[in-house]
Every structure is written in C-alpha cells, then in structure tokens.
Design goal:
Jelly Rolls, mainly beta, secreted, six-stranded antiparallel β-sheet, 2 domains, signal, seven-stranded antiparallel β-sheet, binds 2-acetamido-2-deoxy-beta-D-glucopyranose
C-alpha cells in the first residue's frame, strides 16, 4: 500500500540511516515542498508500487514479495514535479522586428459635423480694371429739341454694352479701365434748324458735331480718341435754347448713334 506522508516524517526516518540519510536529506530539502510518495514504514514490508505505475497482471498477482535485502528498510521513490523546478523569470528579451501590417479595416462612419469656424481675414483688394475689354454702341429713335438748359442726349436702343459700362439711365459712358478709347457720333440734322452738340469728357467739351440750318437734312458725324482715367465720363450734350437746334430721328430708323471702345488699356 502507498501513502503520502509529510516531509518532516521522512527526514526523521532517514536520520536513523547515517550514510544514505545525508544524501537523501539534502535532496529532500531541495524539494522541500514537493509531495513525496513512499511506501509504508517498517511495520508493513508488503509489496509496493508507484502510484503512477499502470496496473498489470504481474503486479496484481505474482510479484508481491518484498526484496529480501530491503525488507528491513522502506523503499523510497520520489516523484519530482518538474513544474516547480522552474527558475526565476529571465531578463526581458530584445524587442523583435515589427510585424507586417494587418489588412485595412473597413471605413468608419462619418463623424458629426464640427462647429462653425471663425471668420477669416479679409483678402487683398481686387483689381478694379481686371476686365480688359470695354465697348458700347447705342442708338436713339426719338428726335430731340433744345430746352432752356444744356441737356444730355439719352439713348433708348442698345446694340452693344459690354459689362454695362455705358449707363443708359444717365446717358454716359463710365471708364472702368483706364486707357485710350475711340468714340464716334452719328446724327441726322433737322430741316432749317442748327445742329450743335458736343462730345463731353466729364464737364469739358472735347469735340463738336455741327451743321448750319439748311433746307436739306443730312447725316453728320464726329470721331475722336480720348485717354481716360478711372471713372471718367464721356457723353453727348445738346446746346441751350438760345440757339434753336435739334437732331432728328424717328421710330422707323435709328438716325442717332453713339459708339466707343477701348483701344488699349494703360
Ligand atoms: C506540479 O505542480 C503544479 C504547481 O504546484 C501543479 O499545478 C501540477 O498539477 C503538478 N503536476 C503534477 C503532475 O503533479
Ligand atoms: C471725371 O469725373 C470723375 C467723377 O467725378 C472723376 O473721378 C475724375 O477724376 C474726373 N476726371 C477728370 C479728368 O477730371
């Protein structure tokens, strides 16, 4: 029969056997806490076996006798649990090389809208004359007679008015691009009335369109080029009543035209 006994009992037992005891005691001290399996003490020298031996017919039936030379001492067999022989934990190893990147995951969902940012700084001033083209051509379908004061010739028909540089309400071309401009005026005279109007640059007369009174009405024209600054105005001005004059037109045809365009910017 086998049994498990405490280690101190084993040591006590081996202390009676001088030579072997010293060796075994040291061994047992080494594995102080390990469970030790041993056969029963002196009083029962019956057959023994390790608890982990498989049960066989030879052990079960025949080999029950104890060895004669050990009949007076117990047979001690130790089972050493290797798990507790493990040493202390070693030093930490060097860091390994980085592993390969994993597969890309699926995109996450769109996050919530963030708060509105603060207002940005004002940009640099833009270029007022960035447009490099300017052209207009307008006409008038109504005749015009002098009044007590000078009057601006107003037009009612637009042929061309690029970027609205010609103000139809004021009857004036306004310079958005400084440069050299070409202007042309065509009018039709009135029978027995004088024709007397000016091409105005701001409030300065620059050229006249003139015809003496006649029994024959005729087409008259004037052309010129002007160098204009930004916001300069070019327009037509009819004279005052002190000189009875008029220009002719009718609903059927356009007799009066005023045209201008940028020749070259500054
Ligand atoms: C060995 O010892 C460990 C820790 O004490 C224990 O978990 C394990 O069951 C033992 N192994 C055997 C075969 O007794
Ligand atoms: C023409 O008039 C405009 C507007 O009043 C002004 O800005 C510009 O300097 C004037 N041009 C000239 C040549 O006087």
């Amino acid at each position: 029969m086998s049994s498990i006994i405490r280690i101190d009992l084993i040591l006590h037992f081996f202390s009676t056997l001088p030579s072997v005891a010293v060796m075994l005691e040291a061994l047992l001290l080494l594995f102080f806490s390990s469970p030790v399996v041993m056969v029963p003490p002196l009083s029962a020298p019956v057959a023994c076996k390790r608890c982990c031996d498989p049960l066989g017919p030879a052990e079960g039936s025949g080999d029950q006798r104890a060895m004669p030379e050990f009949s007076h001492i117990p047979e001690v067999r130790t089972f050493i649990n290797m798990t507790i022989l493990k040493g202390d934990k070693g030093d930490r190893g060097d860091r390994g090389t980085p592993g390969k990147g994993g597969e890309q995951g699926s995109p996450g969902s769109i996050g919530p809208t963030g708060p509105q940012g603060s207002k940005g700084q004002a940009g640099l001033p833009g270029e007022p004359c960035k447009v490099q083209y300017s052209a207009f051509s307008v006409g008038r379908r109504k005749s015009l007679h002098t009044q007590d004061a000078y009057q601006t010739v107003i037009f009612d028909t637009v042929f061309v008015n690029l970027h609205e540089h010609f103000d139809m309400f004021e009857g004036k071309f306004l310079c958005h691009i400084p440069g050299i401009y070409f202007f042309n005026v065509n009018i039709h005279t009135w029978n027995f009335k004088e024709t007397y109007l000016h091409i105005m640059h701001n409030d300065t007369e620059r050229a006249i369109v003139y015809a003496q009174p006649s029994d024959r009405s005729i087409m008259q024209s004037q052309s010129l080029m002007l160098e204009l600054e930004l916001r300069d105005e070019v327009w037509l001005r009819l004279y005052k009543r002190e000189r009875e004059n008029a220009i002719y037109s009718d609903d059927v045809d356009v007799y009066i035209t005023f045209s201008g365009y940028l020749v070259t910017p500054k």
